[in-house]
Automatic annotation (TrEMBL):
Entries under SMART domains matching the protein: AAA
Pfam families in alphabetical order: ABC_tran, oligo_HPY
Family the entry assigns: Belongs to the ABC transporter superfamily.
Name listed for the protein in its UniProt record: Stage 0 sporulation protein KD
Compartments, record wording: Cell inner membrane
InterPro entries to which the protein is assigned, alphabetical: AAA+_ATPase, ABC_Ni/Peptide_Import, ABC_transporter-like_ATP-bd, ABC_transporter-like_CS, Oligopep_ABC_C, P-loop_NTPase
Primary subcellular site in the record, as a coarse category: membrane
Entry keywords, A to Z: ATP-binding, Cell membrane, Membrane, Nucleotide-binding, Transport
Membrane topology: Peripheral membrane protein
Species name: Martelella mediterranea DSM 17316
Length: 281
């Protein structure tokens, strides 16, 4: 079966004072309809950069190279801006880190939700408003009429994250990319957001890519896992296999550093003296 998203040998570089620095090296990702793929790794491992490259949202100074970036069998790497806008936000949507920073502080939540609907659907103003109400109810926000009139600074971080999810879900995407969707939220709200995303994914049947550094999130949400380290893919496996029988040395180190593996009064750590990019042994 042809994957919904097929990315082959993706590399990303940024200019530096001494030339260019490559932050992602020949990474490949595949996800099928209805599947949940977790991309896990430490901060700086290239997780977000990879998906921003797929979305075409990196700055123009970035150099992006790939053998293939295809969505539903169509190469989207060289689309015109107009053609890309027809896909991004509609068929492929993304929930960004830091919801308060991602929302425009100058516009109400309702305006920002309805703007997506205006861009990608033929709904009239009344229908867009009704759809916005429906979306806020779907993401569990009470008093949706009041929330639509609120500005981001008038809402909590958890409420802003739900608004971001509503915006991403507005056009019923086929693929949702969730980039650290629980960053800066307290533990109780994190659990609510993860449950909300899992429920929305199950109800709609969309595919989802979950970018995270939290192995607990991986265990709870994903079907398959890709482990990244220093811009390279270390290992890919289904969730059960990864946790029960990790193959790569870095994956083993990552799992051994989970807090539940603590002994005595010290938390486990990763031994960075090892060359994890060298192989699976």
């Amino acid at each position: 079966m042809e994957p919904l998203l097929d990315v082959q040998n993706l590399s990303v570089s940024f200019p530096t004072a001494n030339g260019e620095t490559t932050v992602l090296h020949n990474a490949s990702y595949r996800i099928h309809k209805g599947e949940v793929l977790a991309i896990v790794g430490e901060s700086g491992s290239g997780k977000s950069v990879a998906m921003l490259a797929v979305m075409g949202l990196l700055p123009t100074t970035a150099t992006v190279k790939a053998d293939r970036i295809a969505f539903e069998g169509r190469d989207i790497s060289n689309l015109s801006a107009a053609d890309r806008r027809r896909i991004i936000g509609k068929d492929i949507a993304m929930i960004f880190q830091e919801p308060v920073a991602s929302l425009n502080p100058c516009f109400t939540a309702g305006f920002q939700i309805e703007e997506v609907l205006k861009q990608h659907t033929d709904l009239d103003k009344k229908a867009r408003h009704a759809r916005a109400i429906e979306l806020l109810e779907a993401v569990g926000l009470p008093n949706p009429e009041d929330r639509l009139k609120a500005y981001p600074h008038q809402m909590s971080g958890g409420q802003c994250q739900r608004i971001m999810i509503a915006i991403a879900m507005a056009c019923s995407p086929k693929l949702l990319i969730a980039d650290e969707p629980t960053t800066a939220l307290d533990v109780t709200i994190q659990k609510q957001i993860l449950e909300l995303l899992a429920n929305l994914q199950a109800e709609t049947g969309m595919a989802m890519i979950m970018i995270t550094h939290d192995m607990g999130v991986v265990a709870e949400t994903a079907d398959r896992v890709t482990v990244q380290y220093k811009g390279r893919l270390m290992e890919e496996a289904d969730v059960l296999s990864l946790f029960e029988n990790p193959k790569h040395a870095y994956t083993k180190a990552l799992l051994s550093a989970l807090p539940e593996n603590a002994t005595g009064d010290r938390l486990p750590t990763i031994d960075y003296s090892a060359d994890y990019t060298g192989g699976a042994a």
